[in-house]
Amino acid sequence: MDYTCFYRFTDCTLWAALLQPGSFLVYPVVACCPVLSEAIVSAIIEIRDYTWQYLNTEKPALEAINVDIYEGEFVGIIGPNGAGKTTLALSMDGLIPGQYHGVKQGTVKVMGKEVDDYPRGQLQRQVGVVFSDPEAQFTAMTVEDELVFGLENQGLSITEIHERLEWVTELTALKPLLPKPPYEISGGQKQRVALAAVLAMMPKVMVLDEPTSMLDPISRKRIFEVLGRLKREQHNTVIVIEHSLENLIPLADCMILLSEGKVALQAATREFFQRIAFLLEKGVYPPEAMQFFYHLMQNGWYNGDLPLTLDEAAAKLETILMPHHSTR
């Protein structure tokens, strides 16, 4: 009997819809992040037993990494300094081993193909990377020239370049800045330009390595607003390495904790942060509202899931306090 099969992610779970004449079945296939021995669909990024050690270093920067990331997922990667987060980002984009010397074991595949097997420059069209220092990525004299530079190098038509420029400047609210030199705008604006320049290339995967580490809270919020629109409207695969958990948590489907070059924990976001004692032990400090409820739990005043957002925390706190108000 003929079947038609569709796949989609919601809340970090892969759902399959099997269609056949006269029937329709939807069921969860796998939860993402844990290593899959056999997956029904191929991961857009598949990392297997991956170890990387830079030349002239005493130990690997990454060791025995196993991660699957699927199309449309929003994945957060966290961990202390020196945990290997940037090395992992560079490995996904092929910059490791392409531009760095070292010893590699295992495989990193993008869209089913080993990163080493991509012709020079081709992988970067599939995986776009935005680093914490946007100026390191600037090459043009105006914001507009910066945004179209990569498109011109791809040989796109003038019409296509114009359409992409219109789309990406609307998405990132950069239209008023197009004639300005990128070096003369604010830090938050620079980061939006760097993000827009990569978005204009329309890569399958976006990797952002601490994109808000040098920004003030307002600029940080604006960057994550753009990422939120990407998730809702474009369904891009987005991987964000970030310390600002308050902004990351509401968007992330899955979380990965790196510690000393190894994957210490990977799970769906809600499940991930229920392991708060383990996270604190690893030097990761969740948002204050989550820590507050953890202390309530330790003292026997609360028994339930830890809230992921301030809105959740407010609702749970109201429920806790309600019996006390009713007895007055």
Keywords:
alpha/beta; 13 strands; Rossmann fold; 328 residues; six-stranded mixed beta sheet
Helix and strand arrangement:
Elements: E1 4-10, E2 13-20, E3 23-31, E4 45-54, E5 62-69, E6 74-78, H1 85-92, H2 95-98, E7 102-110, E8 113-114, H3 123-126, E9 127-130, H4 143-153, H5 158-172, H6 187-200, E10 205-209, H7 217-234, E11 237-241, H8 245-248, E12 254-259, E13 262-268, H9 269-273, H10 276-281, H11 288-298, H12 310-326
Parallel strand pairs: 6-11, 6-12, 9-10, 10-11
Antiparallel strand pairs: 1-2, 2-3, 4-5, 4-7, 7-8, 12-13
Describe this structure in words.
This protein has 328 residues and is α/β, with parallel strands linked by helices. It folds into 2 domains: 4-286, 3-Layer(aba) Sandwich (Rossmann fold); 287-328, no CATH class. The protein is 36% helix and 26% strand. The chain is built from 12 helices and 13 strands. It has helices spanning 85-92, 95-98, 123-126, 143-153, 158-172, 187-200, 217-234, 245-248, 269-273, 276-281, 288-298, 310-326, and strands at 4-10, 13-20, 23-31, 45-54, 62-69, 74-78, 102-110, 113-114, 127-130, 205-209, 237-241, 254-259, 262-268. The strands form 3 sheets. It has a 6-stranded mixed beta sheet with strand order 9-10-11-6-12-13, with helices on both faces. It has a 4-stranded antiparallel beta sheet with strand order 5-4-7-8, with helices on one face. A hairpin with a 2-residue loop joins strand 12 and strand 13 (262-268). Helix 5 (158-172) runs antiparallel to helix 6 and helix 6 (187-200) packs parallel to helix 7 (217-234). The termini are far apart. Residues 1-31 and 33-40 have low confidence and may be disordered.
